[in-house]
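Exam revision sheet. Question 4 asks you to relate a sequence to its structure. Input first:
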Amino acid sequence: QVQLQESGPGLVKPSQTLTLTCTVSGGSITTSGYYWHLIRQPPGKGLEWVGRIGAPGDTVYSSSLKSRISISRDTSKNQFTLQLSSVAPEDTAMYYCVREEAGGNYDYWGQGTQVTVSS
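Answer key, structure tokens:
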């Protein structure tokens, strides 16, 4: 059973950098054929795809966030990490770590972590 656990700061001030880590258990983030995503949901809105990192470490980012985002990983800890710079209140959302399986489905989700951007 794969499990994903988000850990984040909860509250971030505007213009600061958000760092959010996803810890994976029950499966390796380097296993070929899987992708590891970050998806967010602002209050009252739908899901928004943020970006993803693949098994070899390749990354793809949302075009709307591309200038502010970086996703990296620590294979020794089986973790991947989002850094989002210059945050604004519009970045307030529930952030989810998600696995995409080889067939293209999102099969495992973390419980989510709330991030609020406010001074």
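Marking note for examiners. The mean pLDDT is 97.
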